[in-house]
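Hello again,

I reread your note about wanting to compare the complex against the isolated chains. To keep things tidy I'm splitting this into two emails, and this first one only covers the full assembly. Below are the input lines as submitted, including protein chains and any nucleic acid or small-molecule components. They are followed by the predicted structure of everything together. The single-chain runs will come separately.
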Amino acid sequence: MGQRSGDPSTPARPAAPDEGIGAGELTLATRNHGLPLEALRHDVTPPGLHYVLTHYDIPYVPNAGAWRLAVDGQVCVPLDLSLADLLSFPQVTTRVTLECAGNGRALLTPRPLGQPWLVEAVGTADWTGVPLRLLLAEAGADPAAVDVVFTGADHGVERGIEQDYRRALPLAVALGDDPQVLVATAMNGAPLPPQHGRPLRLIVPGWYGMAHVKWLRSVTVSARPFTGFQQTVAYRVRRAADEEGEPVTRIAPRALLVPPGFPDFMSRTRVVRPGRVRLFGRAWSGQAPVSSVEVSTDSGASWAPAVLAPAMDGQRWAWRGWHHDWAPAPGEYGVGARATDSAGSTQPLEQCWNRGGFANNAVCFVQVVCVGDGSSP
Amino acid sequence: MGQRSGDPSTPARPAAPDEGIGAGELTLATRNHGLPLEALRHDVTPPGLHYVLTHYDIPYVPNAGAWRLAVDGQVCVPLDLSLADLLSFPQVTTRVTLECAGNGRALLTPRPLGQPWLVEAVGTADWTGVPLRLLLAEAGADPAAVDVVFTGADHGVERGIEQDYRRALPLAVALGDDPQVLVATAMNGAPLPPQHGRPLRLIVPGWYGMAHVKWLRSVTVSARPFTGFQQTVAYRVRRAADEEGEPVTRIAPRALLVPPGFPDFMSRTRVVRPGRVRLFGRAWSGQAPVSSVEVSTDSGASWAPAVLAPAMDGQRWAWRGWHHDWAPAPGEYGVGARATDSAGSTQPLEQCWNRGGFANNAVCFVQVVCVGDGSSP
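Full-complex prediction:
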């Protein structure tokens, strides 16, 4: 549809040169939020610190006991399940690092308009739920089907299309057991908070956040490829508006560090004093296990290997800790880290621009000032 | 101190005309967050939806059992208290609506640089803790003292001043029993989340957020007025930089509504269809109880009274619900609400600008498009 008077929707576009953050972007930035990077210290992110992105409103669900999940479409026996029904299936808990596909978007030039993430749209939680493959087996999903479509209760309009939030996975992914897709009812051992999908959400370990449909109402087995807005219009990697583009799927490797020292309130520049500074951070990849992390304190001119924390059994889908000892002298530094995974993927130093601002895992440097002992910053 | 090369701090200033949101403001906006306005539905805000603002880093406190609180200064017997010690005092639970003093800042023209809040920096929780007056009585605070100074564990630099976050209350306020200031150890019946002050914070019902010192380490009774940065430099209402200004204290009245209908993802314009729409929201004032709420659907040209929910016993310091039924025809609307309290304060339609962007409670209108039945937005 075109632009009419009163039309609430605008087409996707990159910002003009020097175009500041606009009203829509600011509204998104004040209601959604990232992980304050110092919270990378926590192995498991406390819920209020885990990143949150919602396309539309967070549904208000005062009575989770009345929630129903439909499993339908190309199945032998459609299911209509309550939370109690779901809890009668075997339960699995998986530690998963979740990252928004748009993480890094606001660092791109030109900046694609959308949620203006810097690098903080990430978090790790223990998710508990029923393996999706058990529900699909119970319903008797047609093995010749193509996609499984997931519908959330969140409803809105986006680029002129009124919709429930809806995404699909290929049947083979939905039936997979490594990773095992979950229909989750608990986060860190407690019922899901409203902003994380109360009472039900999908968890797809290793995939960017758009796949983890929240406020899940139906699971529909489809004989045809799903062509909904969030699958074929949004969440595609395109350089030109008229390309079909590549779908956004698994998380590219990234390492981030707990910013060292202490911050200036407004510039967020960090201040450290001379002497040993232990740099600590996390690294993850949804494509293959992280195999190494390197650290640079000179904005990428040189790199040194970091020490990886031991890989933990059963935590393939969670971030991995790392550290590196640094002894700065007074001066200015650009401190960053880069992860490489066992498939050989690593983080670029230069941006790989695309129109949606997806999967921008270019290395980002924290500005650090080391002041002399006894000097004020 | 002046601006040197590598100086992490910059002075406070208003944005230039047409100056977009800058890097520092965006970093603040992605790590702090407001209440998504649809969460006004909840009487008590779930912790991850309550607004959060931290000046510096959130301290990492893996072992709350080792935390100590000092009560010192002009006292007969200095105290050095563990969490267990605090729990041996009588415990009080109070439902409190907390709002950031900078709420509304980014709507001002010119925009003061800082955390760029629109109107969503609010939340309501049940806070449990020891009345501060009991701790001051136990220590034997000097009744001739002037201020009580509260020091948090959060440390940073702000406009060139390296500091622990520190604020004071007049002794009479600290000793008051209506409102009763709390040293809180629990939020909504659970230990404080890291971002809300784990393991200890101050709660000062009716005051803006800057008074509710988080990660509380010491309570110091002072014979002289406190002149620290957050008391005499920041958090003053000034029109000119060289004014002494008025201190920011109690929360000015405000009403907000759950945005009706559903949103466009990017513009956040709301879409409704013709027929009855029940507008619902909350109203609060830290100065006096809310006495009325009015609603406008024509951007303030005319106003109609809303129906206030009954005042709840013992909930003077929490927001109050209200509703108003509306029957829109197709068209465009600016929908807003305005609260008045029993001291006669109300919300202005025009901004009252000040350099820090504090206490801007001007009425804000939600843009709503009513589309015909069966029409797409």
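For quick reference: Chain A has five helices and 22 strands.

B.
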